[in-house]
Predict the 3D structure of the following.
Amino acid sequence: MTFGAPAQAPDPLEVTAVAKMLIGGELVDAKSGKTMDVRNPANGEVVGDVPRGAAADVDAAVSAAAAAFPAWAALSGTKRAKLMHEAARKMHEVVDEVAKLLAQEQGKPLAHAKIEAARVAENLEYFAGLADKLRGDYIPLDDPAKFGITIRRPVGVVAAITPWNFPLTLMANKLCPALAAGCTVVLKPASTTPLATQRAIEAIASAGFPAGVINTVHGPGGEIGDTLVGHPKVAKIAFTGQTETGKRIMQLAAKNVTRVTLELGGSDPMIVADDADVRRATAAAAIGRFFNAGQACLAVKRIYLFEGIAQEFMTKLAERAQKEWKLGDQFATDTKMGPLHSEQQRSEVEAQVGDAVKRGARVLAGGKRPEGAEFAKGWFYPATVLADVPEDSRMATEEVFGPAVPVFIVKDLDEAITKANATVYGLGSSIFTRDMAKARRAAEQLDAGYTWVNDIQVAYDQLPFGGVKQSGYGKEHGIEALEGYLEKKSVVLASG
Ligand code: NAD
């Protein structure tokens, strides 16, 4: 195999990466020979290119994964675990290189890209630890001459489809449980962030996985997504992306009754009671909203404040937005927030803010594009806080996938929970209070897959994560993630 040698880390400002696809253990171009450019969102410059795959490439990748599946599924959990631990080691070796690619193509600050790249290795370790611990059950039956057992079998070929906001962590969330369970994988990264993922996969594969266990295809989802999702040899689709795309995938999956897990959009509420530690709550709100330039599924997207602390909270959050979230090039060491990922992404956030302002919202921080030569060519937008936002405005009703947040004032917890739940989404949620009774009610009554109490919205490897309502279904993280990649089969044994 031609991949896997840890290359010399390139200079971030000079690198132009030419990536391939990994299919059946070989690094290949698209059969058509076509490629697509990948650009830096901070200045529009081309930073690399990848093959522009088509249906024939998807078919080759799925066929390679299907051919590799029986032997990989039959390998002992101990051997799968060993390979995954080695893959984690290989991934650690390339963290700096992968992080540079990620910062370049995605726009996030280099320091944050490094954290994300290192998370891949951590995720590999976590699921490697589970690969040799899969087991079934013994079930007594009414008839004493018989008994039942359950065995757990890997589902087969997994199509893993990921978005551009956290390309590496969201790839690892699918790849790692799939490998641990004994599934083979065809990964399709977002077409605007394929470089870091491809390099990470090459490092992982170089641990010695058999050819065809891990494959990649590149290309716009609109062009190759349907072929991948509708492929008869794909047994499971693990998707993260927009709710609208998720709906389309569900429809396509129905053709072959392919199982799906969907990690979709969110509009997470944060409730701050009048007994909360306001300083801590504003710190969590700022990180929860402005990290990754607000392009996160789990993020503080609507804030509900009790009257007693509302003014203090708004003042402090606006101060943090203006002073702490320095915009800039992703490779400048003092940058806290890079550009938005695309022109369309910035236009969307601007339109959502503009709609609220036109309808009477007050801008407490941000609210318009930054000026200056360093921002002229990129998709920059500042940390933005809005008050008096109409509850039927776009800011309140849609997912805001950028660094802008509306704050609302509520009279009590009943009103806060009712308003927090008044959305089609149900991904994360949080409450800040010193009152255990309030915290418990929020945990029990907020419609979401996660509730943080007095804490920053960070997902943990150990805890299952997934949405309710139109935020999707199925779990990533935790032991529960394995369930999506395993089928529990019942066996009855009678005396012969
Ligand atoms: P997107 O839906 O546009 O794209 C996601 C992936 O799907 C990409 O790889 C894309 O190429 C592919 N795709 C597009 N059309 C397809 C089709 N017809 N068939 C198959 N694949 C197709 O999402 P995005 O804009 O890249 O990501 C942002 C969205 O993702 C936000 O809504 C965000 O909330 C959500 N998200 C959710 C989670 C979560 O865990 N719940 C995590 C991160 C992001």
